[in-house]
TrEMBL record:
NCBIfam families: birA_ligase. Residues 8-198 form the BPL/LPL catalytic domain. Keywords: Ligase. The lineage of its organism: unclassified sequences, metagenomes, ecological metagenomes. GO terms for cellular component: cytoplasm. It comes from freshwater metagenome. Pfam families: BPL_C, BPL_LplA_LipB. This is Unannotated protein.
Length: 263
């Protein structure tokens, strides 16, 4: 039997991690934690306000895909960010920051050596095999003053519960499945990475590059207009965009679905 999130244990983990923000709200079930935090944003909630649910009935991922979230089997959470006077063109980093923060937290608390597949999928990679997806991020700008970062991490899903064959979970990777510690770690790392972003600390970019296994890989990228770009990823630039060498030119990709070619 899976354990539900325990508020007292969560508060203890938050204190141990030195989290300075609001204590997350735990819901038994909801349609979407992103929708819930968007309502908090409209009501004037502070940055760092967070809702985590045991189950989402209408969870979603990037490009309106359904996000499967079995009860108590994962960390299904959303956090409010107030960008303040940060230029709008720098907001492109926010979903990447969410992915990097989740990667930081998974490595710290579970022992699983997760990596990032551009832009913000948390994956586990062995050799030249295709990445196994551990977590995803959905970033939604609500207005000029608020962004909701939704993070879904597969914690204790079994093989039969995985939504797709290329997914995985901390349990299947042999990692720790303490969700209270994982949640506290995500929040603390997110606050740290947002701080780097606000002062243009270049270590944010270098840390992302170090964690991103898409760099150096042969890929196929389905662009928003459904054109498929094939080539080798040579970098992630300072704006968080993918830089692809297609053999004839260097192409800057701002959005798209990436598939790693199997070597």
């Amino acid at each position: 039997m899976r354990l539900v999130l325990n508020l007292a244990a969560l508060e203890s983990s938050l204190a141990a991690a030195r989290w300075q923000g609001p204590v997350p709200t735990i819901l038994e079930t909801t349609e979407s934690t992103n929708n819930d935090v968007a309502r908090l944003a409209a009501a004037g909630a502070a940055e760092g306000s967070c809702i985590v649910a045991e189950h989402q009935s209408a969870g979603r991922g990037r490009q309106a895909r359904t996000w499967v979230s079995p009860p108590s089997a994962g960390l299904w959470m959303s956090v409010l960010v107030r960008p303040g006077d940060m230029p709008r063109d720098t907001w492109t980093w926010l979903p990447l920051i969410a992915g990097l923060s989740a990667c930081d937290a998974v490595r710290e608390t579970s022992g699983v050596q997760a990596s990032l597949k551009w832009p913000n999928d948390l994956v586990v990679v062995q050799g030249s095999q295709s990445p196994r997806k551990l977590a995803g991020v959905l970033s939604e700008a609500i207005d000029d003053h608020s962004v909701v970062l939704g993070i879904g991490i597969n914690v204790s899903l079994t093989k039969d519960e995985l939504p797709i064959p290329t997914a995985t979970s901390l349990l299947l990777e042999g990692g720790s499945v303490n969700r209270e510690e994982l949640l506290a770690s995500v929040l603390v790392h997110l606050a740290h990475r947002l701080g780097q972003w606000r002062v243009s600390d270049h270590s944010l970019v270098s840390d992302y590059r170090a964690a991103c296994v898409t760099i150096g890989r042969k890929v196929e990228v389905t662009l928003p207009d459904q054109v498929v770009l094939a080539g080798i990823v040579v970098d992630v630039d300072d704006q968080g965009h993918l830089v692809v060498d297609d053999g004839a030119d260097t192409v800057i990709v701002t959005a798209g679905d990436v598939i790693h070619a199997t070597i």
